[in-house]
């Protein structure tokens, strides 16, 4: 008989609740969980295809170890013994910098990917750390770090209460949102308009999101920072700025007008390809709205001035008084996050504490640009990366100049990959450790609850029992930590989790500010519940978090600054959260709407919002110089597909075909000028190389702009992706040589770069 089980969807940032239909151990269907406290039954095509991903026959079932140049099936012990024999010896011989770590996007969609990589990095002692963040959201982390002192203090739009929403470079109808966790984003945008609100979309493409808008502006790609600077200039010049109570908590307001003096609407309009009147009207509408939120995503981050654009988004929210205000942009308070600390000066945020070895790229948030990974492997000398640990990462497709990185990976002394597939990157590994399908894994969203538009907490245990020949994904990671630290075979994987638990409790019981001060950490550890180490760690985080029960030792849920506002008034969380209490609520626990959290979130050295930090001030002259740049005739932007997520869902038949195709979208006027035809082929060329791609003629993209989606190019020998390789597409990032980066964040410029097109017979 079929049965049902609940599971939080791990396939995008919306984190929708699913109800799975299961026959035996096979997921045969997925629908939205109508009782889920956050998603209320919403589901997208990715969630509906959960079973297809879960049962993909190309998923690896057993570890692979390279022998005699070929990857062959091996036992788990054989795989870890190979890691334990190679990496500790290399570190002893060549030092910790000889090992690099690269994390891909799927890491933030799993419990293991959130809990264990920090322990891996600590065990290795390496600074050669790369993630997908420098292909995506790192500018937002950097701007938030500089403004608020914490790179994770990212304010999200209060979608359900705002009167005016300005979206830049975002297509949440198809992406489901990013750095803004919001199930049913399309429905929330429609509700905004239904209650009389205004939606403005700024995007060079007429996306499905733009089609919902009251106003769609299609500026020249890459001009987001200039447009935002002109909006801020207009607010200041016309005395429309009204920061209200934020003025007392902000440094640099008085100097901002001078810093932005050159960015008048008239000066910016030619570079943006908008009129000065359009810019002024938008600024005035933003200022006049009862509440408003400005939100930008990947299109405003993966451009030459991504950090400045991210900074200016918060500048506008501050100038209009909408930061930290209901209906504006607010800071979430996740249940498994740190509990609020007293307001006051903090450590602040620093950039460039160390530099990459070859090109001297500054670190940001302890990460180096992933665009620099190939040169760090190729270039001889002390500190060269000779071994790589890749976790759920496919940088051969996602990073610039994949051919160069492909060749560099082939020259590594050793590589270990945690990945369910033999893909374009993991095919180079000496050891591949495959995690089980998502139905066999527990799930809690550590990362995305920090960007959620409503405070809530949910947890789902595995829907299907773990197969006998598999390891739980958390155990795979824990064993890897032991193997690279030379402890494999001498300690149980559970020792990794217990080490973390006892370390946290030792710190808490020694902290005079903690409700656990003076308690016995061993006794407290004995009170934790859970079936395994990861559940015990989750229990600890919930108990010590902002809504936690503090082991019954005092400090009401939500204790700390703003406690009266943050604490739920009634219900399960009012008694204090723990794993047991969460398990008793399988559809989750609603913790209430977002509430103001300033000044508690501030960790700057001044204890205030630092509106004009030195790195931003030093970067503004470069933006001013861009006013005189002559725009390229033709530039490229990416695009999102509703049934895709980067490179890792192209092997699921239900998620391919239809509109999810790798085509080059060209405006009819440009197609006519260049001699391109619908369905014909074109060669597209940029600094990194050229590609041959089918043409799709459409007026949904503006003139002077072409669009090619990201994550394709599944045509390399050795990968085992039967569905993806049947319609491989081309890798858009091969058009880039990796030299063009946003200097503050190290983020690769993936949008708005010049290209040339020629028709092919």
Describe the model.
- This protein is α/β, with parallel strands linked by helices and 761 residues long.
- It folds into four domains: 64-126 and 369-438, Rossmann fold; 140-331 and 602-624, Dimethylsulfoxide Reductase, domain 2; 493-592, no CATH class; 632-760, Barwin-like endoglucanases, CATH 2.40.40.
- The strands form eight sheets. A seven-stranded mixed β-sheet has the order 5-4-17-16-15-6-7, with helices on one face. It has a seven-stranded mixed β-sheet with strand order 28-21-25-22-24-23-29.
- β23 and β24 form a beta hairpin.
- α5 packs parallel to α19.
- The longest helix is centred in the first third of the chain and has 19 residues, at 76-94.
- The N and C termini lie far apart (57 Å).
- Mean pLDDT is 95; it is low at 559-570.
Q: Which helices and strands occur, and which strands form pairs?
A:
Layout: E1 3-8, E2 17-23, E3 26-32, H1 45-48, H2 50-54, E4 64-67, E5 70-73, H3 76-94, E6 99-103, H4 111-115, H5 117-124, E7 129-131, H6 138-148, E8 156-157, E9 164-168, H7 172-175, H8 185-194, E10 198-202, H9 208-211, E11 215-217, H10 224-237, E12 250-251, H11 253-259, H12 265-272, H13 276-288, E13 293-296, H14 298-301, H15 306-319, E14 329-330, H16 373-378, E15 387-391, H17 395-398, H18 402-410, E16 414-418, E17 431-433, E18 454-457, H19 473-484, H20 494-510, H21 521-527, H22 533-544, H23 563-566, H24 579-583, E19 589-593, E20 609-610, H25 614-625, E21 635-637, E22 664-666, H26 668-674, E23 681-686, E24 689-697, E25 705-707, H27 722-726, E26 741-742, E27 747-748, E28 753-754, E29 756-760
Helix pairs in contact: 3-19, 5-19, 6-15, 10-12, 10-13, 10-15, 12-13, 20-21, 20-22
């Amino acid at each position: 008989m079929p049965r049902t089980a609940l599971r939080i969807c791990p396939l995008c940032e919306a984190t929708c609740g699913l109800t799975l239909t299961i026959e035996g151990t096979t997921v045969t269907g997925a629908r939205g969980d109508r009782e889920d406290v956050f998603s209320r039954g919403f589901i997208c095509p990715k969630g509906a295809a959960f079973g297809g991903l879960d049962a993909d026959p190309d998923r690896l079932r057993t570890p692979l170890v390279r022998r005699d140049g070929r990857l062959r099936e091996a036992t788990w012990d054989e795989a870890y013994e190979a890691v334990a024999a190679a990496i500790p010896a290399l570190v002893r011989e060549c030092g910790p910098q000889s090992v690099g770590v690269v994390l891909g996007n799927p890491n933030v969609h799993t419990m293991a990917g959130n809990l264990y990589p920090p322990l891996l990095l600590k065990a290795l002692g390496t600074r050669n750390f790369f993630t997908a963040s420098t292909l995506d959201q790192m500018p937002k982390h950097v701007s938030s770090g500089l403004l608020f002192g914490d790179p994770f203090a990212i304010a999200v739009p209060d979608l359900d209460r705002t009167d005016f929403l300005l979206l830049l470079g975002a297509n949440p109808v198809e992406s489901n949102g990013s750095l803004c966790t919001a199930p049913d984003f399309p429905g929330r945008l429609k509700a905004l308009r239904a209650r009389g609100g205004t939606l403005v979309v700024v995007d060079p493409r007429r996306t499905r999101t733009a089609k919902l808008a009251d106003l769609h502006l299609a500026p020249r790609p890459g001009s987001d920072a200039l447009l935002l600077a002109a909006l801020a200039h207009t607010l200041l010049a016309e005395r429309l700025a009204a920061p209200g109570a934020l003025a007392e908590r902000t440094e640099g307001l008085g100097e901002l007008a001078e810093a932005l003096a050159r960015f008048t609407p008239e000066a910016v309009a030619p570079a943006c390809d908008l009129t000065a009147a359009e810019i002024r009207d938008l600024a005035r509408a933003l200022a006049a709205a009862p509440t408003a939120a400005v939100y930008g995503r990947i299109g405003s981050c993966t451009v030459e001035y991504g950090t400045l654009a991210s900074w200016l988004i918060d500048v506008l929210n501050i100038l209009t008084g909408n930061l930290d205000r209901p209906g504006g942009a607010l800071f979430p308070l996740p249940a498994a996050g740190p509990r609020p600390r007293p307001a006051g000066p903090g450590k602040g945020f620093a950039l460039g504490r160390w530099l990459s070895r070859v090109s001297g790229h500054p670190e940001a948030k302890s990460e180096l640009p992933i665009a620099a990974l190939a040169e760090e492997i190729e270039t001889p000398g002390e500190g060269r990366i000779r071994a790589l640990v890749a976790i759920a990462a496919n940088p051969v497709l996602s990073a610039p100049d994949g051919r160069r990185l492909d060749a560099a990976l082939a020259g590594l002394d050793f590589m270990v990959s945690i990945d369910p597939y033999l893909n374009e990157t993991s095919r180079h590994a000496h050891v591949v450790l495959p995690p089980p399908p998502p139905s066999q894994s527990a799930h809690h969203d550590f990362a995305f609850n920090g960007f959620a538009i409503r405070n809530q907490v949910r947890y789902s245990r595995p829907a299907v029992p773990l197969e006998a020949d598999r390891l739980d994904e958390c155990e795979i990671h824990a064993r890897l930590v032991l193997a690279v630290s030379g402890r494999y075979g001498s300690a149980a994987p559970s020792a990794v989790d217990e080490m973390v638990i006892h370390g946290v409790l030792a710190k808490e019981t020694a902290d005079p500010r903690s409700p656990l001060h003076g308690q016995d950490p061993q006794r407290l550890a004995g009170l934790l519940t859970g079936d395994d180490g990861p559940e015990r760690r989750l229990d600890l985080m919930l108990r010590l978090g902002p809504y936690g029960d503090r082991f019954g030792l005092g400090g009401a849920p939500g204790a700390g600054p703003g406690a009266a506002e943050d604490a739920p008034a009634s219900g399960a969380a009012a008694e204090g959260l723990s794993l047991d209490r969460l398990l008793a609520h399988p559809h989750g626990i609603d913790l209430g709407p977002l509430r103001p959290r300033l000044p508690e979130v501030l960790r700057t050295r001044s204890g205030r919002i630092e509106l004009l930090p030195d790195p931003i001030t030093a970067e503004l002259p470069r933006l001013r110089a861009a006013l005189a740049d002559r725009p390229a005739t033709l530039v490229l932007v990416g695009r999102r597909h509703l049934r895709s997520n980067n490179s890792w869902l192209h092997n699921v038949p239900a998620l391919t075909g239809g509109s999810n195709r790798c085509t080059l979208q060209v405006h009819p006027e440009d197609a006519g000028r260049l001699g391109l035809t619908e369905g014909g082929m074109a060669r597209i060329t940029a600094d990194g190389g050229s590609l041959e791609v089918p043409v799709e003629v459409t007026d949904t993209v503006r003139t002077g702009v072409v669009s090619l989606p990201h994550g394709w190019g599944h045509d390399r020998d050795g990968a085992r992706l039967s569905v993806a390789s049947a319609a491989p597409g081309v890798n858009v990032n091969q058009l880039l040589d990796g030299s063009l980066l946003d200097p503050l964040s190290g983020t690769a410029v993936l949008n708005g770069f010049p290209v040339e097109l020629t028709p092919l017979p």
